[in-house]
Amino acid sequence: MYQRFTPEEVADRLEIYDLFARYIHAADSHDIDAMDEVFLEDTVFDWTDSGGDRDLWKDAKQGDFITGKTFEFIFHMCGNLKIVFGPDGNTAVVDSKTIHPTGLRGRDGEPRLSQVHGGYTDQLRRTDHGWRIVERRWNDAWVVGGLHEVNGIPAMLQEAGVLD
């Protein structure tokens, strides 16, 4: 269905896309101060779909997952945002797709890498300081594990058996 956006809605969509980009960059660099500009203190995080907890941002931001103590290697790619505004234009639900390469070191010190696939369902609200995520739910799809680090494309080709 074709939909024509008003200039105000285009501006809101761009601000929401920027909010997600700021989150991704802050999360991957463990910049908690920058994530405070994305979430509110009482934002609810629901990671129960992947076996995690349900926390408030004020608690989650001090935990091992957000601070990087659990996973040393972290990288997000989040896109395909589907934004549906509430009737008043001051709330929105955003569904996004995420590929999340991540990992930690095994007992032998070698990286143990996985790739997580899923998405977020986020509830957003317009505040005096712009759009903020007020509730975030992770929706698990699948995880590929047992990956290990290789050094560059030649090593990757060697690993695949196409280069001697």
What do you see in this structure?
It is a single chain. This protein is of the alpha+beta class. It has a single domain, classed as Nuclear Transport Factor 2, Chain: A, CATH 3.10.450.50. Helix content is 26%, strand content 44%. It has 5 helices and 7 strands. Strands 1, 2, 3, 4, 5, 6 and 7 form a 7-stranded mixed β-sheet that branches. A hairpin with a 2-residue loop joins strand 6 and strand 7. The chain is globular and about 60 Å long. The N and C termini lie far apart (52 Å).
What characteristics describe this protein?
Nuclear Transport Factor 2, Chain: A, alpha+beta, globular, 5 helices, 164 residues, single chain, 7 strands
Which secondary structure elements does this structure contain, and how are they paired or packed?
Elements: H1 7-28, H2 32-35, E1 39-46, E2 54-56, H3 57-60, H4 64-67, E3 73-74, E4 77-85, E5 91-105, E6 111-127, E7 130-147, H5 152-159
